[in-house]
Amino acid sequence: MTLSTSNTIDFDSARLKLISEKKLSSVAIQREKAVKHMTVLGLQQRLTQQLQTSLELERVLDLFFTAVQEFMGLNSLEFHHDAHAVKVSKGVPSMHRCNYRMTHAGDFLGEIQFTRDKRFSEVQLQSLETLLGNLLYPLRNALMYRAALHSALNDSLTGIGNRLGLDQALTREVKFSSRHHTPLSLLVLDIDHFKQINDKYGHAYGDAALKAVVNCARSCLRDVDELFRMGGEEFVVVLSNTDNHAARFVAERIRCSIAQMQFEIDGDPIPMTASLGVATLKAEENNEGLLERGDKLMYVAKRAGRNRIAC
Ligand SMILES: Nc1nc2c(ncn2[C@@H]2O[C@H](COP(=O)(O)OP(=O)(O)OP(=O)(O)O)[C@@H](O)[C@H]2O)c(=O)[nH]1
């Protein structure tokens, strides 16, 4: 059984509010509150300094949890913000829980849950809420930083990584592959005669076709494989720890899936195919060299008649 207290923290009014407020009546609680107050102040000062040292959401929450955990014997913290696709967990959850839904100036900043072995006292809840006030701006900044980073590295139409994201991933993968002597392959995929879809049905349907191809290619990949949009109707799949033989197999699987894809516009079935180049990292090759080879091989597949792979 878990015991839970749900609260809303409304930072808009610059005050922290408990939805189900219970009365603090006993003198003992008031005394405990007075003693804790000084400590909370000290902790607030420490948090103010610590939390401004990072813009990384994970790090900010880690610093907050470590500081507050010591102070009130917390077992765990869980933060999630669905719109930002973030879920961060620290510690091991326990029986007594309290939840806060955080907002600021009308913006939703996420939900946070704390757990501990013992019940939260009123004084502890108030201290926690005071300390959450220190998390507000670092949390908001970290979410903004995360969103900015996401839009810099991802394609807004399809949601997959963009050219910059590809460059970063490929640099990382090439280094890893060279250091650990593991194979690395990539596929360069280009949709065939894509211009005809745009010309016949319009750009919006062309966009829908691009998304359909992305979903189709994704369904053929492992979780660890990464799919990027290089630009236009050209995509790259980075296959870590994959040799040329296995990469050909993946390329062929994607090619078949796209050719069999049921894509329709206003009830008209639209046949779609793609040409793919398959390249595997050679000794002494860098990420640019690998990408260039993959691209050249994709054009070999185009020239050979499209709807095929070239290795
Ligand atoms: N709808 C849509 N079209 C795009 C986008 N980016 C590029 N395109 C279009 O993609 C088309 C690419 O055409 P081409 O380079 O001639 O290639 P293709 O028609 O696929 O022919 P092949 O590659 O030779 O088989 C152009 O019409 C571009 O305008 C986009 O984001 N959305």
TrEMBL record:
Instruction: State where the protein is found.
Output: Cell inner membrane
What does the record give as the reaction this protein catalyses?
2 GTP = 3',3'-c-di-GMP + 2 diphosphate
Q: List, separated by semicolons, the cofactors it needs.
A: Mg(2+)
Signal sequence, start to end? none
Per the UniProt entry, the Enzyme Commission number(s) are 2.7.7.65
Top-level EC class as recorded in UniProt: transferase
Q: Which domain of life is it from?
A: Bacteria
Where the record annotates domain GGDEF, the positions are 182-311
Primary residence: membrane
Which GO biological process annotations does it have? Answer: cell adhesion involved in single-species biofilm formation; negative regulation of bacterial-type flagellum-dependent cell motility
Write out the GO MF terms.
Answer: diguanylate cyclase activity
The protein here is known as diguanylate cyclase
Q: Which organism is it from?
A: Halopseudomonas laoshanensis
Q: What is the lineage of its organism?
A: Bacteria, Pseudomonadati, Pseudomonadota, Gammaproteobacteria, Pseudomonadales
